[in-house]
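tool_call: predict_structure(chain=1)
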Amino acid sequence: MAFGKGRLVLVLACAAIASAIAMPTSAATVAVPKGNRHAEQPPIPGASKRRTQALKTSFDKKYEKIRDLIAGDQRLKSKIRKAAGQFGIDPIHIVGALVGEHTYNVDAYDQLQTYYVKAISYAGERFRFEYKGERVSDFVQRPQFQRCDAYSDSRALWSCREEVWDAVFRGKSVDGTRYPNDRFNSVFFEPFYAGQTFGLGQLSPLTALMNADRAEKVAGIKQISVDNAAGVYEAIMDPDSTLAYMAAAIRSDIDDYRSIAGFDISTNPGITATLYNVGEATARARKLARINGRKGGKQLPEENYYGWLVNAHEDELRAIIGR
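tool_result:
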């Protein structure tokens, strides 16, 4: 194909820009080494211990169950690799999040089909995301959230709203209403019972809403809305869409730590699993950047008990999923 001089220059310039964007690290980015920073596993929360004891099982047995579920389900492994490929992440990050959730938070079902059946059960249900009768979609229209209106991306928008909740409403009395000293998700997005997450990826509704734009754009899944709570739960129970939300969340966490804190966490699944577990990656990246006083400082991101397990078993988990 023939190019004029001006067009050739434009093409070369665009190629150079694309190449720069595609570079995984920059001079200011520090790669976080593989493995755990802690010699021993950090303490496991009491709530997780109590849930496991109530089921008359152990963390080792639960780990083995989810490991074997993934290893023995070729369809699931194919879906994991597909989602990872769509979002440009190593499949080990999705596997790590699945293993952590099903070891410490729930017990895995015996087969993938069970999750599809559970997803269907939410279709057509009538419930809302609200607190004391006030819909969350109305709540975030209050003037305290006005600064968040500048964001159109779902992750930035809901992250901003979560930050406003923590700063202004959490544990405080505002306009005559006393709000619980609890997370935004726990107060407004858990219509059934506290601490609930659902589906293969054990996603919270807020996590799905935060990462909806990226998941919908990259994976082409159906749109969700905060005003359709049943639709959100149906989406996070469906393995096809929940894996897209998981991958979108992990990809965004990796991007945040690179752009905000100057750390490349893409080769440490224990760190991404930790962020998947604790949430609020954007705020945590900012905090780490402040502690270091600059990007890529001396204090590295650290794994919690959940991420520690993933790193400790990384070789075994890689063997069942590949790259």
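agent: The beta strands are 30-31, 130-131, 134-135, 173-174, 177-178, 263-264. Proceeding to next step.
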